[in-house]
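QUALITY CONTROL LOG
STEP: pairwise intake check
CHECKER ROLE: data steward
CRITERIA: each record must contain a sequence immediately followed by its C-alpha cells, with no blank fields

ENTRY 1 OF 2
RESULT FIELD BELOW
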Amino acid sequence: MRSASPPQGFTLVEALIVVALIGILALAAVPVLGSRDAAKLDTAAAEVGNILRFALSEANRTGSYVLVDASVSGRLKVVNSNASGANLGGVIDPLNKRALELDASAPPWSGKIAMAASFFQGGTAYQQLLIGPAMQLQVFDSGTNRGPLQSGSGVGLTLGSLSATVAIAETTGKVTIP
C-alpha cells in the first residue's frame, strides 16, 4: 500500500506572503533608485560647471581665447582659439592630461544624460561660446561671431523626468550650478 504523498504547491497564504514581501521590497527600492538618478544629474551638472569654470580661468590665466563647443550633440569640448573662433587644438585637462571634453554618451553617463548648450544672442540659442581675455563672452556659430552672450545662457541636462541647467552669467561669467 502506498503512503499518502504530501500535497504539492503553495497554499494561498504562502503565495500572499511572498507577494506582500515583494511589494515591500519594491516600495523600499523605488526611492533609492530615484535618488540615484538625482545624484547622477547633480554629478553631471557639477562636471559641466567645472568645465565652464576651467575654460573661464584658462582664458584669464593665459590671456588668450578659449572656445567652448557643444555643436556635436551630447558633447562639451574646450579648445584653444583666436578672436575668430577657430579651433587651434584642445585645451589640456590638468587631471588626465588629455583634451578637455565631456561626452554624455561615454561612461559614466553612457547616453543616459541628454546635454544641450544654449548660449543666447538675439533670442536665438547657439552651441559655441568664445571666452576671451578680460572676460569677453561672445556667442559663435560655425566661426561666425553672433555677438555678446545674453542672459539665460547655459548648458541644459536631462535625465528621465529630471532636468537641470548650469547657467553662465552674461557679464561676469559666473557659473551657477542648480
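ENTRY 2 OF 2
RESULT FIELD BELOW
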Amino acid sequence: MFMKKEPIKIIDSTLRDGSHAIRHQLSREAISAYCEKVDGSGIHAVVVGHGNGLGASSIQVGLSAISDGEMLSAARQALKKTKLGAFFLAGFATIEDDLAPALALGVDMVCVASHCTEADVTQQYISYLSERSVEVYGVLMMYHLTTKEVLLEEAKKMVSYGAQGILIMDSAGASTPPLVRETISHLVEHLDVPVGFHGHDNLAMAVGHSYMAIESGATIIDGTTRGFGAGAGNCQLEALVALLQKSGIPVDVDLYALLDASEDVVRGIMTKPQETDAISIVSGMAGVFSGFKMPVLRAAERFGIDARDLFMELGKRKVVGGQEDIVIEVAMELAEKNAQK
C-alpha cells in the first residue's frame, strides 16, 4: 500500500551520472540537445555536470571535456521551464570556486552529498544554499554501509542545516528489496521532509527498487534516461514513469518526451549499450561504488589479475568514491599474492 499520493518528483541525472559512462566527455551540443527535449516535460530538475559533481574534473577521477561553467551555461540556455540542478560532493568542490559561480550561472537546485556517515561535512554548503533560498537536498551516498538508525541521524543533521529533502543513494547498486523498504520506511516515518531514492542497476533492480522506495513513502526519484550512468547504470526513468503510469501512481511527466530524449539524444551519446554485465554484478555484490568499474578493469588488465577478485577485495576494505587511488595498490597486492602461489 502506498503511503503517499502526491505526484512523484523526478530528478533527472542523465547529464551528471551518465558522464561516468563516457569518461566525462559530454559535449555542449549533447547537453543542449538533451535539455531541449526534456524541458517542460514535468521533470523537476535536470542535474548537469561531471559525474562526481562541481569541481571534480581531475586526473584522479576523470577530466571533463568542457568546464563546469560551459556545461551549466549550455543547459541554462536550453531549459526554459524545467529547473537546472547541480551536484556538489564535499571534498571536490568549494563555495568560492564552484558553488557561487554555479549559482551565478542560474542553477536553481543543488544536491549536496556526502558519505552516508559523514553528513557533518555538508553543513557549510547546505547552510550557504539555504540562506540564499536555493532549493537544496541532502544526499547520503553508499547507504548500504550503515544502519537505518545511523542514516536517520545523519539525515536529521542535513535537515537541521537547511536541506529541504533527503536522497538515499545506492551508489554501489548493492541494495536488496528488504533493505530499500526498511530504510525508506524508517526515514519517511521519522523525517518531516520528503525522502528520495537514487538506484543503480548492478543487480538489475534499479527500477524495481525505485518502485519499492515509492511504495515505502519516497516521493522523489533520481534516475537517468536510458539508465545512462556509472557501472551498470541507473534507474531508467522512462521505464519507471511508464510503470508508475500503468500502476495508476501519480507522476506528472510526459513519457513521450523522455522516450524521444532517449532515442534521439542519449542513444547517440552512449559509446555502448548500458548493461548489467558480469563485472557490474560482482561490483553490486561487493558493495563498491559503480564508478570504480573502469579503474578496476584497467588495473586488472595491467597487473594480470581477475577483476572480480579485485572488486571483492575492495568491498572488504569498504572503499568509497574518491578513493580511486587505492585500486592500483590493491591490484598490486593481489598480483603479488598470485605470484607466490
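INTAKE CHECK: passed for both entries
DESCRIPTIVE NOTE, ENTRY 2: The radius of gyration is 19 Å.
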